[in-house]
Amino acid sequence: MVKLELFEVDHWILTHTTNIKHNLAHSYCLPISINTLGLQFQDAHASSDPVSSVLSTPMDYGSSMRGSEELRAKIAHMYPDNSSGHLSPENVLTTPGASLANFLVIFALLGPGDHAIVQYPTYQQLYSLPRSVGAEVSLWKAKENNGWKLDTHELKSLIRPNTKMIVLNTPQNPTGAVIPKTTLEEIIKIAREHSISILSDEIYRPLFHSISPTDPDFPPSILSFGYENAIATSSLSKVYSLAGLRVGWIASNSSSIIDLCINARSYALISVSHIDEYVASFALGPACVDNLLERNTTLVKRNLALVESFIEEHSSICEWVKPAGAPIGFVKFTRSGEPVDDFELCRSLLDRKGLLLVPGSKCFGDGKHFRGHVRIGFGGDTAELRAGLKALGEAIKDNYSALSPLLSE
């Protein structure tokens, strides 16, 4: 029998939805309506809006089991290969969101007796799902005191004869850290030597706010290295402000991996909604997607400065490794140099100020890892972020000791 662990971050948010005045638990950029998408971001010479032409389209299963051909072509164009071209649309498979994309890859490629190495900390799905299908999981732990960097020597030590997959998440949830290009190259080399597949959850790509594309270590997609067994997943949920659209994808350099995922997909769904795929294709059009990314990058940079200012003002009790990408960060709260009980801190903030944050040791650890850490989302409305940080500052000023007990208390 498959045993699924409690999905802590979703459970935390779902069970703490009352009395919220300030929601900083989100992990996406400020959502946009389809109407606004069409009015503000389409090509000025476009002859149609995001929904008009789909209204007359027959609602069958579609012409391809892989998803809309137009949408897959636009997704494929986002992944340059190691030559001068781009990924083939035939190497892209659409899904209802990135969570199902990850699910299908893991379901298709892992099983009992297999071993997976998973970057850590990360989104719980990426290590709980392999366990649920019977695979053994080793956590490849990044260290905060080293800027959440990964040690490839440690990766080598984790490899076993039955290692089938390395799972990455870059930019990473919850820290916003990225894996530098040189490290990705080393990971590819190691995986190639052992014929290990690499699944890279790139849902926060290409939202990089604190590393320049001209930086030699600017991280490309895992697919850009030309490794046959590389797989990337993503969606429109986080960076593209369209979480309600429920469109994600699997992309791989390997046609055989895509075929395995198509087979797994057949057991879970037949096709993605035509309406969702049509609007997604519109959103990923050249003029629209560039404007949307510019809007969100500008927003996140502005909001990041507010969080940085808050942390600097309260540097005696909180700190972080500044994220390089994604609209999230992992803030550590301490008292007298010791980590506080982040669960009690988050619960107290919700009760006293209506401020919702995500406790790190509960939602990204096992109660022992990431004590004192809190994930904060800063991709939303700037005024709402400012109000949430003000409420947090007031709570700290009122009685920080009562608000955030030490774990030993």
From TrEMBL:
Record InterPro entries: Aminotransferase_I/II_large, NHTrfase_class1_PyrdxlP-BS, PyrdxlP-dep_Trfase, PyrdxlP-dep_Trfase_major, PyrdxlP-dep_Trfase_small
Residues in Aminotransferase class I/classII large domain copies: 64-392
Keywords: Pyridoxal phosphate
GO molecular function, one term: catalytic activity
Gene3D superfamilies: Aspartate Aminotransferase, domain 1, Type I PLP-dependent aspartate aminotransferase-like (Major domain)
Keyword Magnesium: no
Keyword Hydrolase: no
Similarity-based family: Belongs to the class-I pyridoxal-phosphate-dependent aminotransferase family.
Name of the protein described by the UniProt record: Aminotransferase class I/classII large domain-containing protein
Annotated organism of origin: Oidiodendron maius (strain Zn)
